[in-house]
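User: I'm writing a tutorial on reading structure tokens. Could you give me a worked example: one chain, its sequence, then its tokens, then a sentence or two explaining what the tokens reveal?
Assistant: Sure. Here is the example chain.
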Amino acid sequence: MRLFGCLFVLLGALPAIAAHAFDPFVVKDIRIEGIQRTEAGTVFSYLPVKVGETMTEDKAAQAIRSLYATGFFKDVSLEVDNGVLIVAVQERPSVAQIEFLGAKEFNKDDLLKGLRSIGLAEGRIFDKGLLDKSEQELKRQYISRGLYSAQITTTVTPLERNRVAVRFDITEGNVAKIRQISIIGSQVFQEKDLVGQFKLRTPGLMTWYSKDDQYSKQKLGADLETLRSYYLDRGYLEFNIDSTQVSITPDKKDVYITIGITEGPQYTVSDVKLAGEMLIPEADALKLVKLKAGEVFSRAKLTESTKAISDRLGNDGYAFANVNAVPDLDKDKRKAAFTFFVDPGRRVYVRRINVTGNTRTRDEVIRREMRQLEGGWYSADSINKSKQRVDRLGYFTEVNVETPSVPGATDQVDLNISVAEKPTGSIMLGAGFGSEGVILSGGITQQNVFGSGNHLGVQVNTSKINTVYSLSFTQPYWTVDGVSRGFDLYKRNMDPTALSLGQYRTSTLGGQFRLGVPFTDIDMVTLGLGYEDTSITVFDNSPLRITSYVNTFGEDNTSVLGNVGWVRDTRDSAIYPTRGAISRAVLEAGLPGGTLRFYKVNVQHQRYFPLTRDFTLYLNADIGYGNGFGGKPLPFFRNYYVGGVSSLRGYYTATVGPKDANGDPTGGSKKVVGSAELLFPFPGLENDKSVRLGTFVDAGMVGESYVFSQMRAAAGLSVLWVSPFGPIKVSAAQPFRSQFGDKKQVFQFTFGSQF
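And here are its predicted structure tokens:
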């Protein structure tokens, strides 16, 4: 007896209508027919009846609706044969493969990811209803790249074993470019200055790389907020963006953006008051307010003020302090009074610190940088310091901190640190080109050996003058208090005869043991003890100063080296600093026990000044002083030398300074090197922090006394690009104030590759 004759659910209709009425019956058995990929158990799970239960018309309709709703089947029917319920199904085909022809702008994985988000993917059930959605998704991705004329044609090819192949034929067309950005209604500021604040722009020198000449809704939204901030930071409290119109030409090649604005009047601050529950002295809180009566209103200062008060309360454990500034506008006088309402909320402490994202780096390497402790009162300052310290390890591309509330508790939060690791090994290559030859350098460094935070480096530096081989190891946390230890082994060969800079050779073999003792989060004292053995080879035509030295001290000399130093680092970033400073002072001496007794003092200070959002002034000063004990001079191979990529750009290595009778550079026991560099984004890449330009002036001198009339100088241009292959730095310098005997090297670059 047939229970149903080919019941179909068409176009998503939910009710299933029986073809024939029947009497309820007890199900003796259930048989599934027509399945190929679907497990029988899956079908059984959707049936509202089991063996031994009574089958009714309502249950039959429910079964068909449920099986159609799975999306696995394109046909379902129920039959009955002597008490056996037969479920006959016809499966939908599965997607065997997805192909893209003509896709150049995107790689296949990106396109497949977009299709997977809407349900079309290899191995899934094929649904014709998804084809239109798939085409729209692909068009959306192309539109996001400015390819508005992209055409997509879909072909579905049946395959054996109830499978299909889906092919998308894509004609990408040309990228639409922004041809004009207009701002209507600007009276106070020039339109070009306002448009200059935008990330979006018309085609320029580097827009082929940045893609900023391609329209993006997200970028435009960010630019509109930048425009709003520009006015609000200059006192225009009633500024408003009235309209935004984006139009594209019929050929879909050019985009025009028109923005209508109302500037309104400029407001000044008439008064600033505090209200609410003050847990800190009002006088201290007012010092945190950057808005001052009589000044032009600035939203940036307002935001900075509310944040400063919130952070101050956060340092006392009030993690959820809320500070709102309410304005009272006097439109006639164009003045605004602000009342800061303070609600400290409940004091909370940190329950747990959770670390995620570190697949290679050990948890302890991150946790030992924490200045916020588990079980301690919440401190915004300690959390910020913790984030900065983790960020400055140099092991991660991103460090994010969140402090979510603990469910069910009103006085607890967790501190979640999520990191994104980056390669910490590097292969460095460097080269310098000039009239006197080529300098090559290289090295392999691993800053995070086996995820332990320890540093291991092997360096090779070779030129016609100097050859250096070194091995170094540093353990930043030898003790739990952050005392570091390390060692260096090195061999240095110097052969000035290769470039006719002096007829002699030196060979030095040495090593040292180092300790670093932190006194604060930004101050560290370093201690070192080492030993060196130096051999000097002279010739018949060697300079008199070299032969005299050998006659006095011999060809082989030993040194017991001791050094003590101090470092303070307040930079906001070790890679892309814009503010702060790093200072170093080192005293090195030849101690009793060696044949050479001397001392050298070196002081260096580097500071970054943020001039504007984009421009940073970098200043560097490096001063050295050395001498020998007992009336003896500083050993000549301990002299300072100036010139080269790391000291005075534009001059060949070690050629600046006094010369001997043969015209060979002698270096000196005193040196001064200074630099001033204006750092700024590459034109067209203002928002790309991976590329930075600099225009610099370097100056320096070396000798046996500080004679500033002997200063050499050079000016030039530098480019730093943190490329996907590693950091690349290029400089081109033109020397001036040069003197006879100085050898110039205009072009220099370094290249690094990470692994």
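What the tokens reveal: Residues 129-144 form the longest helix (16 residues). The radius of gyration is 37 Å.
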